[in-house]
């Protein structure tokens, strides 16, 4: 994967900064390339998770099931704490197995950006599925942009931290440092472009999806 990314980056890098070819072995000797790629991948995965958990137009069972609930100091998905079923215009949570988790579940449901309005009856929680308005779609689209910005910030932080490490290394030739820094920059730009594509796709889904 890394070598493919570097190969794809070469032409764009030369146009931007006139970088000469750098082979993978040289790159790997200076930094832990696979670790860097993994960190960038994790930033994209967090963006995917944010989109899935917080930006559902239809308040689907899938989004509800994966919702995070902090219970007794630990993070759980809602499906780990409740049995979830669906009725017409209603999602039903059976929390009889972990009734002590009900306050935390209600808190997570009410603060979620899907604007849920849960109603408790004993150990059962009912969640009405509201009609999705144009305003709600637009609000979700704006929230998607916020998650995208956060992802790009994470990518930049990873990039800046890695470049700082490079600059602190001793006995590296200046031209080598320049090439390595430039390739780190190219990789970060690739990941931000990927995040932007994900944002465009999600916003089209949120605003253009029809009921």
Automatic annotation (TrEMBL):
It comes from the Eukaryota. Residues 47-206 form the Ribosome recycling factor domain. It holds the Pfam family RRF. The keyword Protein biosynthesis applies. The keyword Phosphoprotein does not apply. One of its GO terms (molecular function) is ribosomal large subunit binding. Gene3D superfamilies: 3.30.1360.40, Ribosome-recycling factor (1.10.132.20). GO terms for cellular component: mitochondrion. GO terms for biological process: translation. Keywords: Protein biosynthesis. PANTHER family: MITOCHONDRIAL RIBOSOME RECYCLING FACTOR PSEUDO 1, RIBOSOME RECYCLING FACTOR. Belongs to the RRF family. This is Ribosome-recycling factor, mitochondrial.
């Amino acid at each position: 994967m890394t070598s493919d990314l570097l190969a794809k980056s070469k032409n764009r890098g030369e146009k931007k900064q006139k970088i000469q070819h750098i082979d993978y072995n040289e790159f790997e000797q200076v930094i832990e390339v696979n670790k860097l790629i993994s960190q960038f991948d994790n930033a994209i995965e967090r963006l995917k998770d944010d989109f899935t958990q917080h930006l559902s137009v239809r308040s689907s069972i899938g989004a509800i099931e994966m919702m995070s609930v902090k219970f007794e100091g630990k993070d759980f998905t809602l499906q780990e704490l409740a049995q979830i079923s669906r009725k017409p215009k209603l999602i039903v949570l059976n929390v009889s197995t972990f009734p002590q988790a009900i306050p935390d579940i209600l808190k997570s449901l009410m603060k979620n950006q899907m604007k849920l309005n849960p109603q408790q009856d004993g150990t059962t929680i009912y969640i009405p599925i509201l009609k999705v308005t144009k305003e709600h779609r637009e609000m979700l689209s704006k929230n998607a942009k916020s998650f995208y910005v956060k992802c790009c910030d994470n990518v930049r932080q990873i990039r800046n931290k890695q470049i700082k490490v490079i600059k602190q290394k001793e006995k590296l030739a200046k031209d080598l440092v320049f090439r390595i820094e430039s390739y780190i920059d190219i990789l970060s730009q690739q990941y931000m472009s990927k995040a932007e594509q994900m944002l465009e796709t999600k916003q089209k889904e949120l605003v253009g999806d029809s009921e």
